[in-house]
Every structure is written in C-alpha cells, then in structure tokens.
Amino acid sequence: MRFLIVGGAGFVGSHVVLALLDGGHDVVVLDNLSTGHRAALPDSVGFHQVDLLDFSATAKIVAQGPWDGVMHFAALSVVADSMREPLHYLRQNYLTSLNLIQACIDNKVKKFIFSSTASLFGGPERLEPIPENAAVQPGSPYGESKFFIERVLHWADAIHGLRSATLRYFNAAGADPAGRVGEDHNPETHLIPLTIDVALGRRPALKLFGMDYPTRDGSCIRDYIHVTDLADAHIRALCQLDTRSVAYNIGTGRGYSNLEIIQSVERVSGKKVLWEAAPRRGGDPAMLIANSNTFRKETGWTPRVSDLDSIVDTAMQWRKKHPYGYEN
C-alpha cells in the first residue's frame, strides 16, 4: 500500500515510516523539518519539505495520491511551552491540521490516522488507568489543541466520509531496536533521554519537577510505551477504518514514577544519576496511565518491548552511538 506520513521525520513518525517500509509498503513523507530530521529517513523514501501552514503546497502533495492512508504526526508538542504560549499552540496546531484535513477531503482520501495525546485527560488528579470513554478535560493548551482537531475529524467523517483513527497515546520512548532511528529533540524535554544524558556525564544534575504529588513516591507517574510498539499500533488501527472512525488510548496500562525512571537508567547504565527537586510545572498531572483494553481487544495488539529497562536500554544505545543526535 501507499501512505503519506506527515511529520514523518520526527521521533514517532520516523519509527512508523520504518515499520511501513519493513512491511513492504510505499511511503512518502511531508515535513517542514522544524523539529524533524531528514537524516532519520532512508534515501529511498520520497520526501517533501513543506510547511502545513502553506495550504497550496500542502494540497499539491496530497494531490499526488491515491493514498491508502494519511498519517498526521506534525505538531507543536511540549506541554510546558504551551502553558507559556497558549495562543501560539492553539493557532499553530489547529490551522496546520485544518489545512491537511481540507486537502485530504478535496482529494478524496478515505483513511486518516491522527496522533493525539493523553493530555486530553490532564485536568483533575487521576490516580487510575484512563479508559477510552473518560471525559475529555485538557490540562494544557497543547491538549486542548489536539481536542480541537479531533472535533474537526468528527465532522470530516460525518459530512465528507473521511474516516479517522484518533490514537491518544501516552509517553512514547525508546528507540528502534536495530539502531536505525532514535530520539533527537533540540532542546530535549523528555525525561528518559535527559536522565540518560546525566548518567553519561553529558548534563548536570537532573531536575524533577514536583515531588509532592499524591503518588507512591511523590513524583509524577507516566505510562511509557516503546516507540516500536506505538508504530505497530498505528498500522493495526488502519484496519479498523474499513467500517468506521475510531478513537483509542494507546499505552501499556502500567505507570512508572520519575524516580523509577532514574532507577532504571542507573540499572541499565551502571552509573549514578544526580538529581534535584524543582517546583511543579503547570499542566503536569500527577498520573497518566492508559487503559487500552478496547484497542487490544479489537486489533489483537499487545506491547512487546515496552518493559521499562528495554525502553531505557534501546534509548541508551541510540544516545551512545549518536551523542549529538542526527548531527553526528
């Protein structure tokens, strides 16, 4: 089959590209490279450097179908940044997605996979796994922007027949077990690569934002899913679009605290991780864990490499081989 991957040069998108190529599919990537990396993509992949704010350029690429599916990963995605610049996040994520969805409707695309977020559920303190039918209460402008887009997709299906799979995933982490691609953000904001860099002596002491949450050790708890398992989930979700649009939570159902992340990095690296407590950040809920029972039941998906030490080990091997990311 043939797919257009929007934001395919980013962390999750590049792993999905590899999963599709490994399955024998044809892949074309659209990315503005604001946070993605051309080096994350094999030379064999068709690539277009286009900004989704440019509707004409976006529509021109989408018109090069037919596509068996369009997958949308491109977005601003740092919760803390969205708390500082809420209107920028709301405007950017909404308008870029609106342009892409309109181009898909105009060109009669039938299947659309949307990278949504667990930040939809970041409102009040939640201390149990979150089911798919939980009330949406975004705790940040980032989460709100994703919900805007989910509503656009609802109407795109109801009126134009564009079926969509909205995947509300939790904390993507790790790296391709074969070492082909990994995580490279500038600046890096994700806990696992930051902790690994401290263990490897590349950063000073780690800051843990908030040690007074109502959790087992006072630090935030998150559901970490290996990015390879997440890529598999995207491919499985496509089959559901033969009959209807769907929305799923994608996670392991198990949560790890920030302190447990540090302990895992210490186990895997054999090095001590220096850390210090810092005040809470706005928009950070105490706990986010996915109940993905519906997705597992309907698709047969199960995470295969998402135990914490495997996530950390693959991420660490990537960082060791690529100390400067794709700039090596």
TrEMBL record:
**Family that this chain belongs to:** Belongs to the NAD(P)-dependent epimerase/dehydratase family.
Stated name of the protein: UDP-glucose 4-epimerase
Which class of enzymes does this protein belong to?
Answer: isomerase
Pathway where it operates:
Carbohydrate metabolism; galactose metabolism
Coiled-coil zones: none
The record lists the lineage as: Bacteria, Pseudomonadati, Pseudomonadota, Alphaproteobacteria, Acetobacterales
UniProt xrefs under PANTHER family: UDP-ARABINOSE 4-EPIMERASE 1, UDP-GLUCOSE 4-EPIMERASE
One Pfam annotation, family name? Epimerase
> What cofactor is needed?
NAD(+)
GO MF, any single term:
UDP-glucose 4-epimerase activity
Annotated catalysed reactions:
UDP-alpha-D-glucose = UDP-alpha-D-galactose
Q: Gene3D superfamilies, alphabetically?
A: NAD(P)-binding Rossmann-like Domain, UDP-galactose 4-epimerase, domain 1
A Gene Ontology biological process in which this protein takes part is: galactose catabolic process via UDP-galactose, Leloir pathway
Give all residue intervals belonging to the NAD-dependent epimerase/dehydratase domain.
4-251
> Per the UniProt record, which EC number(s) apply here?
5.1.3.2
Q: How does it assemble?
A: Homodimer.
Under the heading InterPro entries, the entry gives: Epimerase_deHydtase, NAD(P)-bd_dom_sf, UDP_G4E
Annotated signal peptide: none
UniProt KW keywords:
Carbohydrate metabolism, Isomerase, NAD
